[in-house]
Amino acid sequence: MADEQVKLLEKELEEVINYCQSSRLNQDQLRKCAEPLLQISKKSNRKSSSNASEIASRSNSNFRGWIRKLAVLSFVVGVIAVLFQWSVSYRWICVFAKCFALQVLPYWDWTGLHRESCILYNPYLVEENLTEEDCEVCEDYGSIDYQRNISHSTMANEYLFDNMPIVITDAAQDWRATQDFSIDYIKQLYNKDKVLSKFDLCNYKTATGHRFVQVRDNNIPKFHVYWENCFMEPMKALRTYYSRPYFLPPMVEMGTINIVAMASPVGDIPFGHDHYKLLSYNSTDSMTWFSQVRGQYFIRLSPRSPCDKICQKLHFVLKEGETLVLPNDMWLFQFAPHGKNPSIAIGATGTWDQ
Description:
Low-confidence stretches: none
Strand content: 15-25%
Strand order of the largest sheet: 1-2-10-7-12-5-4-3
């Protein structure tokens, strides 16, 4: 339709030009005849120029508006990031968030959502579970391996990737914890240290029914406890007493918690007696290392299903200076105090892309 109109207009203009030429009009006469058309053309050009300027001005205004919005958004994100990184403000944010969650609970039960690992269902997510084929590596594994001066490749390929536990005998020799830690020293740390004394413990477990305050402040003769430091500052404070274990390959990223376990002496009770109350430690991270700083712990490693039908349970005593390295997918980790001396161990978790 538009092409036909253009062709019609061209034809009419051509007829006008032929008429003017046949009438032998001079240039002044032709200009006078064409004056209405020229006026329309000039108005159209002015209008087009005005529209272009208006569009450019509007584009510049929109661009400046987006720049302002981006600057405000960047400022807000920066403030939020600073508040979450600053331990004081982060702690208050957590306090207010927990209080708000408790106030909302009578009107909306969010606890089920809190327990979910994923808020949105992903139909393409396939969880990796142990298979009987995975269990073949531990089928004939009747006792724990002991190694020293182990290489990263050996640790990764022969133990971590195969879900096999191992004890390293030379990992904690130069740690500050091996020099300083005792039951009284740890009690003093969590009672007077400006960082460790101000933060709550996480995942506190006891086999003797005592709260941590009782263990810390009272001279309780029998106790067997462990806990995690899950807040950043106390976790960093405890890390000053140990370094990253040399045997961890670069692929392993240290977890965001560390573990402290301590127990009073068992005494002369025979090995294997029911007095050995085992505490279980579970982690969703890929692996756990557990280093014996003082005394001894009796360790039980139980294969998880379906490997529990194929592999044997492992029982051994972790001695002072030894470090247990445990892939968490295949083994359940339990421990209890052993021997006539107090037991102290520290540990942490690690993850890697599988």
